[in-house]
Design goal:
CATH topology: Leucine-rich repeat, LRR (right-handed beta-alpha superhelix)
Organism: Hymenobacter tibetensis
Protein name: Leucine-rich repeat domain-containing protein
Strand content: 5-15%
Order of helices and strands: HHEEEEEEEEEEEHE
Helix content: 10-25%
Number of domains: 1
Pfam families: LRR_14, LRR_8
Keywords: Leucine-rich repeat, Repeat
CATH architecture: Alpha-Beta Horseshoe
Largest sheet: 12 strands, parallel
Radius of gyration: 26 Å
CATH class: Alpha Beta
Length: about 300
């Protein structure tokens, strides 16, 4: 009898605490929109915080209290720096900081191990902290329109990265480790100052779209032919005089854009690409004879000279 009573009391205790917990969660669920002040006074309830376009010049250090926060939208403000303890938000999945005036990012950024999407475009950032490589859940990185001249070698540790936009910066080169980003599908490196690419670029076997337009490339690595998933390749606005024969191995390639280079011919190997439907080669140095030769070799593709 006594053991049964103890069991009943135990069940009642658990049930009461469950009701209490559910009530707390229910109260939190009733409110989905918070001001910054409200969020800091109800830190245990805040999962999403939208601070977009509020003319904020800083975020308070107490932001670190929002331990349940999963999504933070702080874009279109006037932020120049972030509080160091922002990286204590270990539940954070989405972080929007674009269209601010950020000069740098916290050196401990890599502590955000659950972060999946980071948007930092249209700031005045000059570099990414080396700890960026510790963002082992990061899938989407949008960092266009900053002042990066390089990426840290640790960038290649972003094993889950699928979407990478570092366009409209001042990149002179890519770290060799860039070739280790085996899950990359979409890469935008256009409008930089790249003069060369990693020799092992072909390791990016899942890559579907690659935009390298408006750089200073004079040649492509032969390994680019190993990017077997590539569908769209944009190389306009470079200084290319020839293309590697290995482009003929890109069996899934559908669109090839090469305008504004110094090309006089296309590799014959392109004739093997049955999926290739569009080739744009305007503003190059093709002779009439070279044009006819290309059109004859690629009857299934539409060429634009």
């Amino acid at each position: 009898m006594r053991s049964r009573l103890i069991s009943l009391l135990t069940i009642l205790f658990v049930a009461l605490h469950g009701v209490q917990g559910n009530t707390c969660l229910a109260q939190c669920a009733l409110k989905t929109s918070f001001s910054l002040t409200q969020a800091l006074t109800q830190s245990g309830c805040v999962i999403e915080l939208n601070l977009r376009g509020q003319n904020l010049e800083l975020l308070p250090p107490s932001m670190g209290q929002l331990r349940r926060l999963r999504m933070l939208f702080a874009h279109e403000n006037h932020l120049r720096y972030l509080p160091e303890n922002l990286t204590q938000l270990d539940s954070l999945r989405v972080l929007f900081l674009n269209k601010n005036s950020l000069l740098d990012l916290p050196p401990t950024l890599g502590k955000l191990h659950r972060l999946r999407q980071l948007q930092i475009e249209q700031n005045v950032l000059r570099e990414l902290p080396p700890s960026v490589g510790e963002l082992d859940s990061l899938h989407y990185l949008m960092s266009a329109y900053n002042n990066f001249t390089s990426l840290p070698e640790q960038f290649g540790q972003l094993a889950e990265l699928e979407y990478c936009d570092v366009s409209h910066n001042q990149l002179l080169f890519l770290p060799a480790s860039f070739s280790r980003l085996r899950n990359l599908r979409y890469v935008y490196l256009n409008d930089n100052k790249l003069q060369s690419l990693p020799t092992q670029l072909g390791s990016l076997s899942k890559l579907e779209e690659l935009n390298l337009s408006n750089n200073q490339l004079e040649q492509l690595p032969a390994s680019i032919g190993d990017c077997q998933s590539l569908k769209v390749l944009i190389l306009s606005g470079n200084q290319l005089k020839t293309l590697p024969k290995s482009l003929g191995n890109l069996s899934k390639l559908e669109i090839l854009i090469l305008n504004d280079n110094q090309l006089t011919t296309l590799p014959r190997s392109l004739s093997k690409l049955k999926q290739l439907k569009t080739i744009i080669v305007k503003q190059n140095a093709f002779t009439p004879a070279a044009r006819r030769q290309a059109e004859t070799a690629l009857p299934g593709a539409k060429l634009y000279f």
